[in-house]
Amino acid sequence: MSITITTQQVSMRYKERVLFHIHELTIGPNDAIYLKGDNGVGKTTLLKILSGLTKPSSGKIATTNTTWRHALFPKAKFKDVIYLHQTPYLFDGTVYQNVGYGIRYSKESPKDKRAQIINALRMVGLETLSDEHISVLSGGERQRVAMARAWILKPSILLMDEPSASLDKESIERLVIMAEDLLQRGASLVITSHQANALTDLCKKQWWIKDNTLTESPLLQVVSEPSSMLGSANSERSSINASTTFRAV
């Protein structure tokens, strides 16, 4: 399901300091937004507000799936919005258990759940590590596990906070595959990054947080890799996609 988030007069203050005041913004449906700004301007704070993890100092946030029930349970309107942290928290357990955490109580059969988890692990190239404890993973592998865990929930909006920081090219390409899949399903993405890469290349809009507010500016297409390398990467991505057909295992 695709949803839209809209905000009005959202502000965040810390004592006397105004971090930002945003007149209005809209995300979705099927948006891909590159969120930029210097360190400390509030990019992470804004993503947490949009995901319902942080309450703004003032302002209103609404989603198109808002119902009367959300007056009693305000955070329920964010159930289709997922925030992916730069250093994601992983649970004490195996890679397989972490990826399947969000669907463990779903009504699907155990066979279908397993198929989804294995498919997600294949997409991020970690199927051979499914039974390993998360403590043995590298930083890039942990980020791929977190992305797989988010992807398997099929969010309507995925907020990615510096997802490519300290990742190698292969890890970024694996995240791109899942991000592209979500976009094809009609989901929206907001991505923060301090440098252009294959993930930010997916974006069609560019937002800047500057001078305590947010503005939208034209997105100049930046080639993050030489064309010869991109061609190779695209070929590899197509090959990976072809091998990740959803099937029972």
In brief, what are we looking at here?
This protein is an alpha/beta fold and 249 residues long. Helix content is 31%, strand content 23%. Helix 6 (169-184) links the parallel strand 6 (157-161) and strand 7.
Per DSSP, the total helix count is 7
Secondary structure: helix percent? 25-40%
- Which regions are unreliable across 5 or more consecutive residues at pLDDT < 50? 222-249
Oligomer: single chain
Q: What distinguishing features does this structure have?
A:
249 residues, alpha/beta, six-stranded mixed beta sheet, 7 helices, 23% strand, globular, ABC_transporter-like_CS, nucleotide-binding, AAA+_ATPase, ATP binding
Description of the structure:
- By secondary structure, the chain is an alpha/beta fold.
- It has a six-stranded mixed beta sheet, sandwiched between helices.
- Strand 1 and strand 2 form a beta hairpin.
- Helix 4 packs across helix 5 and helix 5 packs parallel to helix 6.
- The longest helix has 16 residues.
Secondary structure: elements and pairs:
Elements: E1 5-14, E2 17-27, E3 32-36, H1 43-50, E4 58-63, H2 69-72, E5 81-84, H3 95-99, H4 110-123, H5 139-151, E6 157-161, H6 169-184, E7 188-192, E8 205-210, E9 213-217, H7 227-242
Parallel strand pairs: 3-7, 3-8, 5-6, 6-7
Antiparallel strand pairs: 1-2, 1-4, 8-9
Helix pairs in contact: 4-5, 5-6
